[in-house]
């Protein structure tokens, strides 16, 4: 392998640049050429390739977002789109890919490899942490810390005014972000898709605490909570306990940005190195991840089909710590 | 004057604790006793008084929120409520008050002084900065910095995805928070109550930029914008320019919390000292403020009735800087 | 067991309060009484005990330092001192201890248990991360992030002025803090006790880069580096490469303070719960830790005598990433 | 005037990039061309000119350091050097300069204008705030906040261990940085060049507090303090009060870096606009500044020769607030 390319795809995550940097420098270290593809599969189809060297990624490790940008590509879902992407890669002499993203990205890469034989090694770049094959995804630790800093600020005002705040954090299918936000933020209750706590149970719990003359509360709600988002839950609680002064904060997209944390820079760097060395060792259709502090390569078929379960003991922690 | 009391009222603001601390220590310095009243006028009526000394406020200067808590009091709006409050003050030997809050607080204090003769000196504690009689209010600088840090994170993801973000910041009646957020956040457009920019003008401006192939945008919207809040504006823009990938972030209550900035600690400390020394010098019904770096006392009637106008040159700055 | 006590000892670390909070609430949850001992063994000898309940630790999870304070005790090194400590515990009806600290603390606890039979379960509270029996110690993640934020700021000025900065981070016996600071901070070189890189090698490396017209550098130096501290190394480099504009920054004690990171709050909470539940299950002379995301109890004799080795692959990472 | 150039000189300061950005966009707004000169006068002599347009400064407002870099130039001190610089400007068609820096920079510009007639308008870019002609310099507010955040962390550990910390902040000739750090950081004592407090007075004050059983202290020392730096003072205090557990932290170069605060971005933007519009209006040998919230242009001869005095009431504040 003489020349590889790297791209980011799906939602951006802090640490993506640290991973790109590691990919580039590892390629340089091993004497192979490396290109960046702008805007993921969309740029691959259009041929938006940029030659990268060691200096191209200087001073990027601390930057949020992705210098290669990200975009969705409907066209790559079609055979015709993938054919165009393949032609672009061939024309540019690119023999292997590092794809930084999530399962949507890896699904595309799997299909692409089956049809055209271009090998891809994946890097788990998503704040959601819901990828099988790695303990943590790139961006997760930063997103949690960002949300937690916001909750620390909200607690100031919740305490000052004896209020009940419903704080919605990201996490479409899982409570990975919500759990440490709740435990670290000293929240009384956490609502996540995995446990399906009913709004009635939330109301009961708040009423009990209110009677014990607790007057300020934080309830962390995961975005993908089936019982409804933070506004819906707050509305129903307000109806049931009118004397409660409720407020809602949706932390939202600020969780995606910002300088990556130390842990995310380490993880992104480890995985970026591993992805390139995996490609050089002939791997394909696998994602590089860290499980129990050890590097592992997991087939895309497993990252896509297997579910990473949340540690059930965390729910018990919320219960004990809000005693 | 042998004994005074201090309380916070209205929305909490970072730096209120620094101001309480300055009030307490200035009282101690001048050899007078000082009490804290919990929950503003509500606690005054109920007699929730706490003796404070120098040690009570140790390690509070950096804390967000207010250690004396804040609450609204319907009862203080009634003659009967104010009578009860006066009785409580008399019973506790309190001869003067420092009220940290905004115009609602000062209106109550004015009435209270007229009826019962208890002197109050006010301190401008509100993130909104819309108080005549001081260049900056306590909490404003911190709130702006908090919002700006959020916008910095949003810019990461706006750039990575070529998106248009509508970011709503606090400011019910004015653009004081929105303006520095827009200028400091590198926003293309700012919508504030003072200028009544139409949504059509926003659409025009975005369309123009889009045609010049600019692809990511930040539009800062003040909460009290008459054209509607960020969601409404974003909705109408999306209808007019469907190819624009729009997103909305409401920064919300996190702007109220957090450790106060250096400027807010300085301002809160200066004003806390000035409030006590004003009381000792026989002042009443005035707010201590800093105008052009000099201490001034402004009658409550002026802080309530006069409007502090936003510097019009700031709108021109947004225009020049987004060229 | 009806009543236990918790104390912090040794250097303070962010997350100690989160751990104290978890200890207190777990005790309450299990229906046992809990006391805090001020100033570690010193306060134990003097009988500085404070009754704690759930509310005592409200709003402490985000606080740096330790609300129970910490101190060294020469007296506890003597049999007489330990006898006094034992008498105080007996007089206060305390049957078990949770000690948050490092190996010095655990050594004392072991001796104490052998002589007087009071069981202790330890919690690894130190920013240094050099404790066998846990992947990470409480405070480590925060300290690394604090140092890294400082390095991010230093890089701004290093780049602007084409300078070579020698940044000294904490870590008396190991490079645990220095390694992620170097990788995450984009440093060119890291000097840690474990590898004993000579100053000559540093000079060689800088000279090579200088010749390739690289002009700004960051060298991370662990405090306990045998070749000398940052000032010594910088001095010798300056003598060898006079054209290099060198500067030194000792990050120092700021690494010990600040709000704990999300990871440290989680870890501290998990370990605090585990420590109390370990005591209740009859454990003694063990430290609660998390290894590969699983809770483990390690005998104090192992935490004291076994060495936790740094991952050698990290040194290779620094080499690849600074290519 | 058809073409101007901008450069940064002297120590870097947060907000320099925001100022460069404002200069560039104001030039574009007024239809004139703008170049960046790398490395100040040094790059001017060597002809390191870069054409800048609106996009060149996109996404720079939040960045620390200076994208144009800064350097000292011995050569510009010579007539020959200035002749070369002039030739370069003439060859590149540059008719006016915006110099972002301090008095060293302005002294050079004055001489340059006298000899060669090239007009310069200055922008006060230095963290030190010791420039006559502006209430605040670009970078000052950020530097103070950075130092204060460090002191907040140090207070955690000072309190936990009952220690006395001597914290040295920047400020070679003045206490501008030290004063708000002391007031905002809740320090007991501040030592600044302007007041020449003797170390004996510091010892007296600490001994008095120690006797009143205060056990943790923060003493803020300005870098340029005549009585010696933090290490010297700490050493002498330790000798006089051996029971005090003293520690020293030099905050150092981290004060120069980091994302500029909201106030610094506003100030830098205002001044950048004013500098260009000043040049276009025929000004020369003046610095644009903000005094009492109004734009003023001050002759370089005044910024260099007049001294901006520190507000003496601030010293009284430290005394009252540490009561």
TrEMBL record, chains A, B, C, D:
* Pathway(s): Carbohydrate degradation; glycolysis; D-glyceraldehyde 3-phosphate and glycerone phosphate from D-glucose: step 3/4
Q: What is its EC number?
A: 2.7.1.11
- Keyword RNA-binding on this protein? no
Q: PROSITE patterns per the record?
A: PHOSPHOFRUCTOKINASE
So which domain of life are we looking at? Bacteria
Main EC class the enzyme belongs to: transferase
Q: Where does ATP bind?
A: 11, 72-73, 102-105
Positions annotated as active site in the UniProt record:
128 (proton acceptor)
Key words, A-Z:
Allosteric enzyme, ATP-binding, Cytoplasm, Glycolysis, Kinase, Magnesium, Metal-binding, Nucleotide-binding, Transferase
How is the protein's activity regulated, according to its record?
Allosterically activated by ADP and other diphosphonucleosides, and allosterically inhibited by phosphoenolpyruvate.
One Pfam family, please name it. PFK
- The Phosphofructokinase domain covers 3-278
> Reaction(s) catalyzed by this protein?
beta-D-fructose 6-phosphate + ATP = beta-D-fructose 1,6-bisphosphate + ADP + H(+)
Question: Which positions does UniProt annotate for ADP binding?
Answer: 21-25, 155, 186-188, 212, 214-216
Would the keyword Nucleotide-binding turn up in this protein's UniProt record? yes
* Molecular function terms from GO: 6-phosphofructokinase activity
- Known PANTHER family for this protein? ATP-DEPENDENT 6-PHOSPHOFRUCTOKINASE (PTHR13697:SF4), PHOSPHOFRUCTOKINASE (PTHR13697)
| Function (record text) | Catalyzes the phosphorylation of D-fructose 6-phosphate to fructose 1,6-bisphosphate by ATP, the first committing step of glycolysis.
Family stated for the protein in its record? Belongs to the phosphofructokinase type A (PFKA) family. ATP-dependent PFK group I subfamily. Prokaryotic clade 'B1' sub-subfamily.
What protein is this chain from?
Answer: ATP-dependent 6-phosphofructokinase
Q: Which organism is it from?
A: Hymenobacter yonginensis
Cite the source lineage. Answer: Bacteria, Pseudomonadati, Bacteroidota, Cytophagia, Cytophagales
């Amino acid at each position: 392998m003489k020349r590889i390319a790297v791209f980011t795809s799906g939602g951006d995550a802090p640490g993506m640049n640290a991973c790109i940097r590691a990919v580039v420098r590892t390629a340089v270290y091993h004497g192979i050429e490396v290109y960046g593809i702008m805007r993921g599969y969309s740029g691959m189809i259009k041929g938006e390739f940029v030659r990268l060297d060691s200096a191209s990624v200087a001073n990027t490790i601390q930057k949020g977002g992705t210098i290669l940008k990200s975009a969705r590509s409907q066209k790559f879902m079609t055979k015709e789109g993938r054919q165009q992407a393949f032609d672009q890669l061939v024309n540019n002499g690119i023999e292997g890919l590092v794809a930084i993203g999530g399962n949507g990205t890896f699904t595309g890469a799997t299909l692409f490899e089956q049809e055209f034989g271009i090998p891809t090694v994946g890097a788990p770049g998503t704040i959601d942490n819901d990828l099988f094959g790695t303990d943590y995804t790139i961006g997760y630790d930063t997103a949690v810390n960002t949300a937690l800093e916001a909750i620390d600020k909200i607690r100031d005002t919740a305490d000052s005014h004896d209020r009940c705040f419903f704080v919605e954090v990201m996490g479409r299918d899982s409570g990975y972000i919500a759990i440490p936000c709740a435990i670290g933020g000293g929240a009384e209750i956490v609502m996540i898709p995995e446990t399906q706590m009913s709004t009635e149970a939330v109301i009961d719990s708040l009423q009990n605490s209110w009677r014990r003359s607790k007057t300020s509360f934080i309830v962390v709600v995961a975005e993908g909570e089936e019982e409804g988002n933070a506004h819906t839950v707050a509305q129903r609680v307000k109806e049931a306990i009118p004397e409660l002064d409720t407020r809602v904060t949706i932390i939202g997209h600020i969780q995606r940005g910002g300088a990556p944390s130390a842990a995310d820079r380490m993880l992104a760097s480890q995985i970026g190195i591993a992805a390139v060395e995996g490609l050089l060792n002939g791997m394909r259709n696998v994602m590089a991840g860290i499980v129990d502090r050890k590097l592992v390569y997991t087939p895309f078929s497993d990252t896509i089909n297997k579910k990473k379960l949340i540690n059930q003991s965390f729910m018990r922690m919320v219960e004990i710590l809000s005693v």
